[in-house]
Specification:
17 helices; Nucleotidyltransferase, domain 5; 9 strands; 2 domains; about 450 residues
């Protein structure tokens, strides 16, 4: 008995129980055990009160978005597919923005973000996009990996109260995957989705689902619609800000979507197999919540990336500003990219961000054939032994200014570096030989009478 009491005491917040204990210990007529039990009960009561207060918050005050738990659960005996549904009000706050701002997103903004020509199609309505996330029996891919949970997020405007809905399909029998996919197909056919948004879907989710459909002699229906994979814009946007670009990490850091109680993704396959053996839905509850939060987090992150385009001041880190400039450059808006590079060149504090901004600006100047301005920027980088800058300067000096001696000096500087790759070294050696021949040819011309 004392062992169980000791376990409860270990879970109490030690820095807050000292005063309580002093008060209880002063009471007469109680044994030590009775005093300890009273301390535990008071602490548990306080914790329960805190939880009730948290649940009473309005949706916009929540630190972490929580689903409406009046969701539908279809769990019939012998059913091959379980369906779990959640609903998130559009006035729910994610970081600085609410999901209802999706109503003001244009297909042009999505095209700039994803660089996909399909985004510019007038038929691609942002509010009709489908967000997809899968949970599988493994991460290796191939025919041995089964997507046992398919989660879909979408904006529901069929009711008076607009919301972002999440619908999750769960395979209840590994031997009845065909019926499971048929249930998913009925859902996809019931709505006119304009395209699909995923996170790493082009490399993982879509190839895996296409293979599962082929094995069932079906065609994966989402293949005929535009597919926007947010992993690629996310890598560009936050490459210079965060070490990790995992969806959960970005949602937690940028939007305040706490994942402290989240399930470990490595445990998801074993939890599913345990569920199949026990048929206890408790095994999958955390996995379902994980999938739902991935979907609503993905929708919020895409919104955040679009808001960056509207107003650069929403970005809180100069690494994000560099990422936005890279997106503009990659997808054709060179004027906006140049403006951001110029701003970073003047204001960046981090040396690595400054160097990358100068390099990006030099590339844009070269594209515009402003070679002299580009060479001045390459000069700034060459002084810090940037190999590409040294190469660009040697090219400029050799071919445009015909200053072979100076060009050779930069090539020799590069060859003295110890961190060149073999291909880079061969390139500079060829350049050195060619420039040397040009210098010797000029020397011979000067020697003629």
């Amino acid at each position: 008995m004392m062992g169980k009491l000791r376990d409860k005491l270990n879970h109490l917040e030690k820095d807050k129980i000292k005063k309580k204990w002093e008060s209880i210990d002063s009471q007469k007529g109680l044994s030590t055990r009775e005093k300890l039990e009273k301390l535990v009960n008071l602490s548990l009561k306080r914790k329960k009160t805190q939880q009730q207060a948290k649940q009473a918050r309005t949706p916009t005050d929540r630190e972490t978005p929580e689903p409406n738990f009046q969701e539908m659960v279809r769990e019939e005996p012998g059913k091959t597919t379980l369906i779990r549904e959640f609903s998130y009000p559009l006035d729910l706050l994610f970081g600085k923005f609410k999901l209802e701002e999706w109503k003001r997103i244009s297909s042009h903004q999505l095209a700039m973000l994803f660089g996909d020509e399909d985004c510019q199609d007038v038929s691609l309505s942002p509010l009709k996009l489908l967000f997809l996330d899968t949970e599988t029996t493994g991460l290796a891919g191939g025919t041995g990996t089964i997507p046992f949970m398919l989660g879909f997020g979408f904006f529901d405007q069929d009711t008076d109260a607009d919301s972002f809905r999440v619908k999750i399909f769960i395979l209840n029998d590994l031997y009845k995957e065909d019926a499971f996919l048929a249930e998913v197909d009925r859902f996809l056919e019931s709505r006119e989705f304009s395209g699909t948004v995923t996170y790493n879907g082009k490399s993982f989710d879509f190839p895996l689902l296409e293979a599962r459909y082929i094995l069932q002699r079906k065609r994966f229906p989402l293949l005929k619609r535009p597919h926007l994979d947010f992993l690629f814009p996310a890598r560009t946007l936050w490459k210079h800000t965060f070490d990790s670009r995992k969806l959960g990490h970005l949602g937690d850091t940028l939007l305040g979507i706490s994942r402290d109680d989240d399930v470990d993704p490595n445990q998801i396959p074993s939890l599913y197999f345990n569920y199949l053996r026990s048929k206890s839905f408790f095994m999958l509850q955390k996995v379902v919540e994980h999938n739902a939060m991935d979907l609503v987090g993905l929708a919020a992150l895409v919104l955040l990336a679009v808001k960056y385009q509207e107003n650069i001041t929403y970005a809180e880190d100069e690494g994000e500003i560099l990422g936005i400039a890279k997106l503009y450059e990659k997808y054709g808006d060179l004027e906006k990219a140049q403006q951001l590079y110029e701003n970073l060149k003047q204001c960046a504090v981090r040396e690595d961000i400054l160097a990358k901004a100068v390099k990006g600006l030099a590339v844009l100047k070269k594209k515009k054939k402003l070679y002299q301005e580009a060479s001045e920027l390459w000069q700034m980088l060459a002084d810090s032994s940037d190999h590409r800058a040294v190469r660009e300067l040697s090219i400029h000096l050799e071919h445009r200014e015909k200053n072979y001696v100076k060009a050779l000096e930069y090539v020799q500087k590069a060859l003295a570096a110890v961190d060149l790759t073999e291909i880079q070294r061969q390139d500079f050696e060829k350049r050195w030989n060619r420039i040397n021949k040009k210098i010797k040819a000029l020397e011979k011309e000067d020697e003629k009478p």
